[in-house]
Predict the structure.
Amino acid sequence: MYEDIILTFKAFMALFRRETALPWTIFLPLGLMAVVWAGLTWFVTSERDAFMVAFVLAIALRLALRAEGMIRTLKGQVSNRTALIIALMFGPAALAGLIWLGDPVWCQRFLSLYFMIMASLYLLDVIDGRFAMVRHVLPARRRTGADPMMARVLAICYMALMLLNETLIHEASLAVWLVYFGLLPILLNRLLLAVTRTVEQAYAKGVNLL
């Protein structure tokens, strides 16, 4: 059993190296933050102010890039009016709230809140047994029998990401956290692909990862 787990872990790490190229738009927020942070550190004396400007601009760009797809997805689940309200609440309204608070810690904790919500949704999948979240997020062409294991693994992944974010908040500088935040979409993309394939391979081999 332990040999199977070791082989599964090695296969998991290998998946990060043989995936197709990411869309160029995923690198835009990171590039914007790097340019803004570098420029503002020359003209703004407060590191907090430089952080807030770089973070807000990166979030605004990320929301703009994902707005159309998010609204289209919501329209498939709820009415057009409800989809618009939800998009505004979790987009411009949340961004306006972070700007009004004006505290970098709230911006950093906003990411922890996102991870906590995602972990909770996958835990609900485990509890109710319908796995609606797994089937909504992951591709349709996969082994649906692996959904129970998939939900548990993804819940643990997001809880680990929340713990990592809280650790960085307490131990890392604002500049280091911004680098982490800028790289996060790339890391999450690879992590989700690797976890999905690893769980499916483990399920096919009869290996229980949890």
About this structure: The longest helix spans residues 174-205. The chain has a mean pLDDT of 75.
